[in-house]
Each structure stands twice: as structure tokens, then as C-alpha cells.
């Protein structure tokens, strides 16, 4: 009994397979599905605390040479460059500190030698700058480079730390006020992403397998094939569900904690919503596939009985018709059939 409705699980499996494959490969090359990040860090204002603290200290004597001269040597240079871009620093009084902060956001990261954003994908970390600039409304990401996370690790603070050290001021991430609490939030994220990538890889294999067994179910509609389909589809569904839960909860928790603790030093994180949308869509599609095959198994049982009755009735009817003649074999055969059922 070939049923055209089998198109549904095949289509759902193809779609789920493509989605999880894309989820795995997003961000593999600079700009490829850049919006589909797990979490992204806006570091355009990282280090603003150093500049702002200096600006506050400057408040009592706004005319005293400007706040850049009060900055520790390593930042004074960067500050001067940043503020030079916004004009005279005599007018930069504390009431305008927020404006200064915004303008700093566009220049500070470059001064420090880091990038304006770091986006974490399943297999890579991409970095780059905002276009047209960090503070513009609807700024888009201009990816400069992607680092393979699977081989080089997902520790974004280590990457930033390294770039700061080779930067013009030879700072470390600790100099910016990056504390243990913040690092522990980052480390939790690292663990979550590693677990996620393993689960996601298994999900890619299982959804691919489910596609193959769904096609097999179309070609050979037998009970064992149907049961294999149910098992594979349910495993794929459970794996994808675990995947989506880990990444949805992990990324959101990390983003909240990092933003909470990083606000002072100008570090912000956002969990990627487009990314979780595709993983949850895959979860839904695998559920459809699983439900379809489960339904087929249940139906197959009944269907077989119906089929059995129908196909066996006609020979038996003829046998019974034949049994009206004194034919012992025919009667025995039909009794045997009956008792077997
Ligand atoms: C992206 O950055 C590169 C240099 O890093 C620059 O040449 C290019 O114009 C930028 N693209 C956009 C759209 O801003
Ligand atoms: C990045 O952070 C800065 C500083 O808080 C903010 O002004 C800017 O709007 C953010 N940019 C993006 C694209 O999120
Ligand atoms: C950032 O870009 C916006 C839109 O292009 C522009 O209005 C704004 O002046 C820019 N800010 C800086 C500091 O260049
Ligand atoms: C990540 O890098 C930071 C800074 O180099 C370091 O303190 C931290 O221990 C690293 N975390 C892991 C899990 O390696």
C-alpha cells in the first residue's frame, strides 16, 4: 500500500536536514549567514569605563587641560585620537558624557586594537566592525575574519585579550575591568556551545538518516521499515530538542549575565534569535516526521488486519462455497484459519 501522504515526512526530513546543516555551517566563511549567530558581543565601547572615569575626575576642573591628559598614559593617546574626531575637548563636560561615550564607541575599539563585534557561531567565531558605524541605527556587521572555534576554541575573552596585548597599548583584558564573574559567564557559554556542537552534529546525522529511512518507507511499506522510521525520527526529534534547549537557554543566560556584568566596562551581548528560530523549526519538522510514522505504524496494524480479512475472505469464501460440497480438506483449512486468528 503506497500512500502519497509519505511526501510529508520526506519533505519535512529534507527541510529539517537542510536547516540543521545550515545551523552547523552558519558563519563558516566571513559573511555566510552572519546574522545566524548563537550570540554576539558588541565590543565597540569596551574600555569606555577608563575614559568615562577620567572624564568624571575631570569634572571639578573642566578647564584644566581636558580629560585626556588625566588618563593613564596607555589610554591618553587613544582618548586623544577618539575625541579629536569629535572636535574640541573643552566643550566635553560631564553633561555630555553620554555623547562622548557614543563617539568613543565608534573609535575606541580601533584604538585598542580590537574589533567592534565578535559573533559566536556553531563552528566559528567571526569578528569585524559595524557598518556604517557602531552607533548608527540599523548598523550591519562587516565581517573581517572568522576563526575556527572547533580547533582554536570558543574562548572569546582569550581572543580579545590576545588582540589587546598585540594592540598599541599592550593592555590585557584585566586592565579593562574584565573580572572573574564575567569570565565565569563566558566559560559557561563555552561549555554550552561545545555540548551544543556535539548534539547538533548527531542531529545532522539523524535527520539525514531519517530522510533516507523515510524514502525507504515509501519504497518498502513494511512493518519493520515503519518501526525503524519511528525510532530514527524520534531519536532525531529528541536530539534536536536537546540541542535547541541547550542553545536557547545557554545563549540567553550568557547574554543576560554578560550584559549585566559587562555594562560597566562597555561589553554587551545579544543572543541570536534567528538562530534559535531555525533550530526550533527543525524540532517542529522532526516532530511532524515522527508523528507521521507513528501514525502509520498504528494504522498499519489495523490496515493489515483489514487487508488480511479482505484478501483472505475471498479465498475462504470460495473455500466455504466449495465446502458446501463434501470436501473435508476445505473445511479443515478454513477452521484452521479461523482458530489461528
Ligand atoms: C568592510 O570593511 C572593509 C575593511 O575592513 C572595508 O573596506 C569595506 O568598505 C567595509 N564594507 C562596508 C559595507 O562597510
Ligand atoms: C554597540 O554598543 C554601543 C555602545 O553601547 C551602542 O551605542 C551601539 O548601538 C551598539 N551597536 C549595535 C550594532 O548593537
Ligand atoms: C554614524 O553613521 C550615521 C549614519 O550614517 C551618521 O549619522 C553618524 O553621524 C555617524 N556617527 C559617527 C560618529 O560618525
Ligand atoms: C579564557 O580566556 C581567559 C583569558 O585569557 C582565561 O582567563 C580563561 O581561563 C579562559 N577560559 C577557558 C575555559 O579556557
UniProtKB/TrEMBL annotation:
In the UniProt record, the signal sequence range is 1-27
Which ranges are annotated Basic residues under compositional bias? 332-341
- List, as start-end ranges, the regions of compositional bias called Basic and acidic residues: 308-327
Query: Looking at the UniProt record for this protein, which Gene Ontology cellular component terms does it annotate, in alphabetical order?
Result: cell cortex of cell tip; plasma membrane
- Establish whether keyword Signal is in the entry: yes
Mind listing the UniProt keywords for this protein, alphabetically? Answer: Membrane, Signal, Transmembrane, Transmembrane helix
Q: Where is this region: Disordered?
A: 308-341
A single BP term in Gene Ontology: fungal-type cell wall organization
Q: Does the keyword rRNA processing apply?
A: no
Segments traversing the membrane:
195-219, 226-251, 277-295
Domain of life, source organism: Eukaryota
Name this polypeptide is given? Actin cortical patch SUR7/pH-response regulator pali
Originating organism: Podospora didyma
